[in-house]
Write a structure and sequence with these properties.
By secondary structure, the protein is mainly alpha-helical. It is built from seven helices and no strands. It has one domain. Helix 2 packs parallel to helix 6, helix 2 crosses helix 7 and helix 3 packs antiparallel against helix 4.
């Protein structure tokens, strides 16, 4: 019975899911406010926004619902694919550092290392490692990185607050 209880969402995971919804709402609000500038947004940025939105939508679904069933596995594969595609696509986005890579690209490399580890830990039934890795990815790559997309100098921040 302890295993089943251990798979239930805890307070931290509820907060992570809520945080994902907040970042998603901020992103969608910024996009709506920046409608007039959409034609100037390069394709890699649109791909990046679409894949990150997919991960943000799925995060609370994955963290708040029953785990270990077929739906969790399928949605989990979609989530890790979205995270991997976001990381890969981010390597094509180099506007911040005048065409070069920036510190944020280290997060992309970290994500590309973590995604297979998340899948491996789930497939090998290492629930503790899987849960810890997913929590770290949500906190670091979605919430903290998401928060830093909104400073005034960045596109979404300009649209949201400008």
């Amino acid at each position: 019975m302890a295993t089943v209880k251990g798979l239930a969402p805890d307070t931290f995971e509820r907060l992570l899911g809520a945080g994902a919804l907040i970042v998603l709402a901020a992103m969608l609000t910024a996009l709506a406010r920046g409608f007039a500038d959409w034609d100037r947004v390069p394709l890699p940025v649109w791909v990046h926004l679409a894949t990150i939105a997919t991960a943000l939508i799925l995060t609370p679904v994955m963290l708040w619902r029953r785990r270990g069933d077929e739906r969790h596995r399928v949605l989990g594969y979609v989530w890790v694919a979205a995270m991997a595609m976001t990381a890969i696509d981010s390597l094509a986005i180099r506007m911040i550092n005048r065409g070069g890579f920036s510190v944020i690209h280290l997060l992309s490399i970290w994500t590309l290392i973590q995604v297979p580890l998340i899948v491996w830990s789930a497939r090998s039934h290492n629930h503790a490692r899987h849960r810890s890795s997913v929590r770290g990815m949500v906190l670091g790559a979605l919430l903290i990185a998401g928060f830093f997309t909104f400073p005034f100098e960045r596109m979404l921040g300009h649209w949201l607050f400008g």
